[in-house]
């Protein structure tokens, strides 16, 4: 298995804490992991977790001075896989519409590598026609999806919308990580 450059996008849902396990497993497999967090993701998990796990601070700002050309350009230019986990309804809509209205959605438009989304949201959100339209559009645009799974949701009910477990997500990505 050769080392790959993975950008792990983390958007703002409860499942964001599981992104730490994904980052850790990728690093343990010798991959180089850059984490990009949405502003809302910061409400669910602290950047220090990813700094420690990945050995570099996550990118939080489209104007991060570590990337003079902009992280949306520099992270995209040598990226083997863009994995967005969890992917919120908002981010999926933004990517589907090509809005480029935040760093993750702008990065999405710049990457030329495979893109994998692991959606996570409540069952009513997942089943909403608008969300399904965006998923269909992204699928036909060539994006890949893992999950969501059924099970316990943070809104205290069982149903479809739970983010897939980290191992299942990584297993779905294995063809791009070898
Ligand atoms: C407690 C809480 C949990 C949330 N969980 C989710 C979620 O699982 N999926 C989702 O799509 N939105 C969820 N949201 C709403 C998003 O945080 C909100 O749409 C936000 O604007 C998403 O921003 P982002 O896509 O830039 O991360 C949640 C909000 C709160 C307050």
Largest sheet: 5 strands, parallel
> Overall 3D geometry?
globular
Describe the strand arrangement of the main beta sheet, using strand numbers.
2-1-3-4-5
Percent helix: 25-40%
Low-confidence stretches: none
H and E order: EHEHHEHHEHHEEEH
Note down, in words, how this protein is organized.
- This protein is an alpha/beta fold.
- It has a single domain (5-176), classed as Rossmann fold (3-Layer(aba) Sandwich), CATH 3.40.50.
- Helices cover 38% and strands 21% of the residues.
- It has helices at residues 18-28, 47-54, 71-77, 89-97, 103-110, 123-127, 129-140, 166-172, and strands at 5-10, 32-37, 81-87, 115-119, 144-145, 149-153, 157-162.
- The chain has a five-stranded parallel β-sheet, with helices on both faces.
- The longest helix has 12 residues, at 129-140.
- It is globular.
Structural features:
178 residues, 8 helices, 21% strand, binds flavin mononucleotide, 5-stranded parallel beta sheet, two-stranded antiparallel ribbon
TL;DR of this structure?
Helices cover 38% and strands 21% of the residues. The protein has helices at 18-28, 47-54, 71-77, 89-97, 103-110, 123-127, 129-140, 166-172; strands at 5-10, 32-37, 81-87, 115-119, 144-145, 149-153, 157-162. Flavin mononucleotide is lined by residues 11-15, 38, 40-41, 88-91, 102, 120-121, 125.
Secondary structure blueprint with pairings:
Layout: E1 5-10, H1 18-28, E2 32-37, H2 47-54, H3 71-77, E3 81-87, H4 89-97, H5 103-110, E4 115-119, H6 123-127, H7 129-140, E5 144-145, E6 149-153, E7 157-162, H8 166-172
Parallel strand pairs: 1-2, 1-3, 3-4, 4-5
Antiparallel strand pairs: 6-7
Flavin mononucleotide (FMN) binds at residues 11-15, 38, 40-41, 88-91, 102, 120-121, 125.
């Amino acid at each position: 298995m050769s080392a790959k450059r993975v950008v792990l996008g983390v958007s703002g849902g409860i499942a964001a804490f599981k992104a730490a396990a994904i980052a850790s497993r990728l690093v343990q497999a010798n991959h180089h992991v850059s984490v990009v967090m949405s502003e809302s993701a910061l409400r669910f998990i602290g950047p220090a977790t990813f700094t420690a796990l990945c050995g570099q601070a996550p990118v939080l700002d489209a104007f991060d001075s570590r990337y003079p050309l902009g992280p949306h350009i520099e992270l995209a230019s040598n990226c083997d896989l863009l994995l967005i986990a969890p992917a919120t309804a908002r981010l999926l809509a933004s990517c589907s519409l090509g809005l480029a209205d935040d760093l993750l959605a702008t990065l999405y438009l710049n990457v030329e590598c495979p893109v994998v989304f692991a959606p996570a949201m409540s069952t009513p959100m997942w089943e909403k026609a608008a969300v399904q339209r965006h998923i269909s559009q992204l699928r036909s645009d060539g994006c890949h999806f893992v999950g969501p799974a059924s099970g316990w949701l943070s809104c205290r009910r069982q149903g479809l919308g739970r983010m897939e477990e980290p191992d299942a997500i990584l297993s779905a990505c294995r063809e791009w990580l070898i």
